[in-house]
């Protein structure tokens, strides 16, 4: 058989890796091609890593092997319309392959992915920190942690002060949460954006009452005050709260994003590049948000490849606002899995000019050194879950 031309980059192998990363397992797809160029993608999904890894194997055999890495849109379309039971598992597996193909295409052309998607529109990317608040439980301790995080230069800090709270928390639990928020605002001063993620805990009535109680602390956004599946109820809450409403990380496609945007109550859309199916789908969703003058802030709690994909997209997205970052509050081995893992500098991400995702090569030995962890999980309705950070 004649050797395929460089431009074909036909896929010869897709290998899924599950990597234990303390409070979650991350999933990577290493894609090899017949001309020797390899790429890496990420398909991490909250607490179902093995299901995604199995789906990557299935999708690779069914759709990817033998295809050109340049046929990204067609591969994605074939997967998403034929896989009848699409949703978080299938979409995350498809994203793992899709992201790796962008890495391969960029490497084949010698260009970073953002140059293939329109080129950069930002020079540096402001980030906000998450997972900085695991060290203590007392408001004072969390305030100190906030001061230290803000001193790194982040534009904002995000946190969930509600511990085990459910739909309608008791007053004492709420008082503690309000004390934490007050301590954080007091520690960082007026010029750091504060965002609260409620992880969908509350009933609409409690969500509205709690949001009004938080008003003096000038939050930049309140995220998922109620669960996001019922867009009409989420919107009802959005209409009645004094700060921006953020949501989108549990939204698995452009079609579901449309439902959120049609409420006209989403002030910041947070697509997860993996859960929506990859870089190109996330780019399309960002444009849909922009049609509503709405900024995007890509959800990014997973590994280094997901962060690299976010940085590439942020760089070429006009309505990008700020990038969620766990990098400085994560396991050290996130920086071992690829040659060049993104890392914020002074609270910002620089935009790499290396080809593809800019991560260089995936390092399978490092992935194998940190296998699946059965207990890697973040039980959001228990006391002190944030201690797992
Ligand atoms: Mg969230």
What features would you describe in this structure?
It is built from twelve helices and eleven strands. It is α/β, with parallel strands linked by helices. The chain has a domain at 114-357: TIM Barrel. Strands 4, 5, 6, 7, 8, 9, 10 and 11 form an eight-stranded mixed beta sheet that branches. The protein has a three-stranded antiparallel beta sheet with strand order 1-2-3, sandwiched between helices. The model has no long low-confidence stretch (mean pLDDT 97). The structure holds magnesium ion (MG). Magnesium ion (MG) is lined by residues 197, 223-224, 249.
Low-confidence stretches: none
The fold-level CATH name of the domain at 114-357 is TIM Barrel
**Molecular shape:** globular
Bound molecules: magnesium ion
Helicity range? 25-40%
**DSSP summary: helix tally:** 12
Order of helix and strand elements from N to C terminus: EEEHHHHEHEHEHEHEHEHHEEH
Question: How far is the N terminus from the C terminus?
Answer: 52 Å
Beta-strand content bin: 5-15%
* Rg, Å, rounded: 20 Å
Structural class: alpha/beta
The CATH C-level name of the domain at 114-357 is Alpha Beta
Corresponding CATH architecture of the domain at 114-357: Alpha-Beta Barrel
In this structure, how is the largest beta sheet organized? 8 strands, mixed
Quaternary state reads: single chain
Let me know the CATH homologous superfamily of the domain at 114-357. Answer: Enolase-like C-terminal domain
Mean pLDDT: 97
Total DSSP E strands: 11
